[in-house]
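As promised in the previous annual report, we have extended the structural survey to additional targets. Below is the entry for Probable peptidoglycan glycosyltransferase FtsW.
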Amino acid sequence: MKLRVPNFGLTDRLKDWVMGSRESDAATMVLYDRTLLWLTFGLAIIGFVMVTSASMPIGQRLAEDPFLFAKRDALYLGLAFGLSLVTLRIPMAVWQRYSNVMLLASIVLLLIVLVVGSSVNGASRWISLGPLRIQPAELSKLSLFCYLASYLVRKVEEVRSNFWGFCKPMGVMVVLAVLLLAQPDLGTVVVLFITTLAMLFLAGAKNVAVPGDHRLRRICRGAADHCRTVSYAPCDVVLEPVGGSIRQRLPADPIADGVWSR
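The corresponding structure token record, generated without further manual editing, is:
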């Protein structure tokens, strides 16, 4: 015998609101993906709980406030929620119109961070503006994806039929990758590379390297060699754990051993 707890229909109504019914989606214009929205809220809540739980002793020691980092995280979540509401109101035509400007601005910021950027653990990734710090690598993701979407809308036939139509967006991605590897920031380069290939594949490009292809293995070997070069600084990781960009060195070890490039 199953024990049922009365919920007054809240479960069904919540499920309908999250997933949406096909009839309502067909009759009305959906401005956002409800499933993605709830997943985002869930990740934000889990991250907030993790930050609060892990930072209470540190906050108590630094400022005699166990919720110091929790308050800061809550402020960032509020800012992110406010920016998401503003972004939701911006038409797609605006993103398409200014995609080139956003891309050029990202390239300029990536150049600036190499000159005046703040160095943390051997990597220069932040631009300090008073109490705020900007990470151009994150802005480069948004600008590249907007540029690719705009380019594929305008040049979809060229991408499908012409090799140079495929090379142009890959060339833009390579320019950003070179600037990011100079920081170094290999993780962002991997995200840009995979997302660019995925967008070109969905657009119907015939020159996309599929997993297991010799071109993809060659790129992985090149990334592994780069990891060896920038990660193994002249210092001992045990004696000087923050030197030589240890965050780049530890993930690079299995890649440099050839696990991903075989």
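The chain is about 70% helix and 5% strand. The radius of gyration is 23 Å. These points will be discussed at the next consortium meeting with the crystallography subgroup.
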